[in-house]
Design goal:
alpha+beta, 5-stranded antiparallel sheet
């Protein structure tokens, strides 16, 4: 006979719970240790444990106080509704006894809040207990020193953007299934995987609910005097995600409870300013849907950004009398300021003006679309460029894109806003706006 599992005065013996003369049967083989992982609200505690027969799966056991048992059971139902969504923490099962409801959840390394606090050089000092400091040190020992969340220029790293996109992916799939999370917060986003291949997953479905239809309300989700409008439960999720995105991109250097618009001017890159501004808008109809956020250029890699610029240049090259051509040329002042030859290296200017090259073209330095054409042509003819020009521009695609990004930071986002307005439904551009998870 298996040895009994003793926990907080409760004994689980062969599936039978014995405590103060009360007998209840659990439906599965479970183990709840006395090692505490975290605490939640209303007396909720997370413990280490396992679920299922040997070899049992490791689990994070969420213990909900009996007086809130209905909340715990409803949370379990929401997890079951979301089962199979990659970016939602899995719930293996639920058990209960006379005092608690137990949810057996997929174990993760830490929360997004922990991750920012551990690795950000800017995070606000938080007075922690000795045990909490020990826990964070232990988490860092597990993750190691290869977690890079920000670049040297303070732009978010590919890893941080990937984690943010994971969260959006989870929200997008929830909303497809008519579920609103309603408790999107940095402590409720968990980090799983192995460094450097980490992923983010939404957890804590206690406040989640199925869509009840359109509604308009103000709620506790607003953290400042001017309450935002919500025309659906889903719009609340996107509003809260805007706070998280601002908090993470700023490296936790501002309080999470403060309104992001106080700091939006200091946000980098410009793509982040554009997206966060939409997400935290007081007006619900100004906020994008989760699928639009998922495809926002903030989350594009260098190759996709360059592809977008090349496709835009090709479209305008064939129609110089169209509205798109005219609208893009209006970006000269916003993106460049003056003539664009003053922003690039003289060595590159000499190469541009060399009539001896096969792909020579005369460029107008006061024409915005000529800059776009330069980006397109030199990428296309990269291997034909002299070695010193290749070295100057950097390797394709990352180095090449960064060369132009550092000189024209608003290039992609301003072109994107014009294309979104005038031709996002054109066949060649749907992949930048309406493609799906299979990309």
């Amino acid at each position: 006979m298996a040895a009994p599992i003793i926990f907080k005065g409760l004994t689980y013996l062969g599936g039978l719970l014995v405590a103060r003369g009360v007998y209840n049967y659990f439906t599965g083989e479970v183990n709840v240790s006395d090692k505490e992982i975290a605490k939640g609200s209303n007396g909720t505690v997370i413990f280490e444990g396992s679920y299922g027969p040997p070899p049992a799966r490791k689990a994070a056991v969420k213990r909900v106080v009996g007086v809130y048992s209905n909340v715990g059971r409803e949370e379990y139902n929401m997890y079951m509704e979301a089962d199979g969504i990659n970016n939602i923490v899995r719930c293996y099962g639920m058990e209960s006894d006379w005092r608690y409801v137990y949810l057996f959840l997929e174990p993760c390394i830490c929360s997004l809040k922990d991750l920012i606090q551990i690795y950000s050089p800017y995070a606000l000092p938080i007075f922690q207990s000795e045990s909490e400091i020990t826990r964070l040190i232990s988490v860092k020992n597990v993750l190691g020193n290869r977690v890079n969340l920000w670049k040297e220029n303070d732009y978010p790293s590919p890893l941080l953007l990937k984690l943010m996109r994971d969260v959006v992916c989870g929200l997008m799939k929830l909303h497809e299934n008519k579920i609103a999370h309603l408790n999107v917060a940095s402590q409720n986003i968990l980090i799983a995987g192995n460094t450097p291949n980490l992923c983010a997953k939404l957890s804590d479905m206690a406040k989640s609910k199925k869509f009840r239809g359109e509604n308009s309300s103000s709620s506790h989700y607003a953290t400042y005097s001017e309450q935002p409008q919500f025309n659906s439960e889903a719009s609340k999720d996107l509003f809260l995600f805007g706070h998280i995105l601002s908090f993470c991109i700023h490296g936790g250097r501002y309080p999470f409870s403060d309104p992001p618009e106080r700091y939006i001017a200091n946000c980098s890159p410009p793509e982040a300013v554009d997206l966060i501004s939409q997400l935290i808008s007081r007006y619900a109809n100004m906020r994008p849907k989760a699928i639009d956020v998922y495809h926002h250029p903030l989350f594009w890699n260098s190759d996709k950004k360059l592809s977008f610029l090349r496709d835009t240049s090709d479209l305008t090259e064939g129609n110089k009398k169209g509205q798109l051509y005219k609208e893009l040329n209006k970006l000269q002042g916003e993106v460049i300021g003056s003539s664009w030859d003053t922003k690039i290296d003289s060595k590159l200017i000499s190469a541009i003006e060399d009539r001896g090259v096969r792909f020579y073209r005369q460029y107008n330095y006061n024409n915005f679309l000529d800059l776009l054409r330069l980006v397109r042509n030199y990428f296309h003819h990269y291997l034909e460029l002299p070695n010193d020009i290749q070295e100057l521009l950097g390797s394709k695609p990352e180095g090449y894109y960064e060369y132009f990004e550092t000189r024209f930071p608003k290039l992609v986002i301003e072109v994107y806003k014009v294309v979104r307005k005038f031709c996002q439904k054109k066949g060649g551009f749907q992949k930048y706006f309406h493609s799906y998870l299979a990309e």
